[in-house]
């Protein structure tokens, strides 16, 4: 029976080494996974293949002796990329590698219909219920197809991927997400702020989510960006902050960008304890989870943390900011991108007398 060895990576995450040994045949094989369950499934299936080869009197072929598979290409793509691959993209590619049959196909055998079949299988995945999410999976995989042949000589057919993308789009298997226009109401925000203040009062060591929410709203910053901002990158006299690795179309890994801090952002920052390098020293995933849990508890439907960025951008437009002034705060380089976040519904500042500004500053 295969052994599963748990290991801790340098970044603190866990990995699981599945190791198969057949001493009588002097054969061993191993592979590393992100999840124990995936490692166990692979080991179970691979043991059957190995034992079948041994029972037939054949020596099992090691992975290195086999034809290069899509899984090999994915591994190489993740390991050798000198540009930073986002956490989400890397996880999607590992999921494809570990959980879908197409990853075990030899590169030179994968045709467009195999890719289409994989996309159809995605729609059976628990939690994946939209064509836009399937599009993300396919887009991330297309990067492997476009680079594998020129970089490593792997026989992945980039044209087959293009044909599959066109077919999947035509059949509705993948599509761009609908433009999101959801903005929180003042009543919803009041409920959220009250909920988070009570949580902090009950346990002072818990994350002050009411301050994080207020800063996200008025700064228009993304949750990951908020959690990366350092005191060193904050210039209160200039009312600006350097956002490290800000997302930017066409720039993998993001671009360090100076952005303006509209009122009352500086006051919120100044109210934060200066105990660590980061102003908001929290995990961005925890911020998202806490916000989602609060919305569920309060019965607030279809509101995401990222909607605060839409709200903040729309607010700045409603109080009369010009497009260049908007962009100086949001960090957008083009109006087409900024337009997605601007949903003007009134004139003036609906937060002018909002009681929570004083409570978070």
3D architecture notes:
It contains 15 helices and six strands. It is mainly alpha-helical. It folds into three domains: 3-65, no CATH class; 70-170; 186-360, Orthogonal Bundle (hpI Integrase, Chain A). It has a three-stranded antiparallel β-sheet, with helices on one face. Strands 4-5-6 form a three-stranded antiparallel β-sheet, covered by helices on one side. The longest helix has 22 residues, at 131-152. It is elongated and about 80 Å long. It starts with a strand and ends with a helix. The relative contact order is 0.08. Pfam families: Phage_integrase. InterPro entries: DNA_brk_join_enz, Integrase-like_cat_sf, Integrase_catalytic, Integrase_recombinase_N, Tyrosine_recombinase_XerCD. Residues 179-355 form the Tyr recombinase domain. Keywords: DNA integration, DNA recombination, DNA-binding.
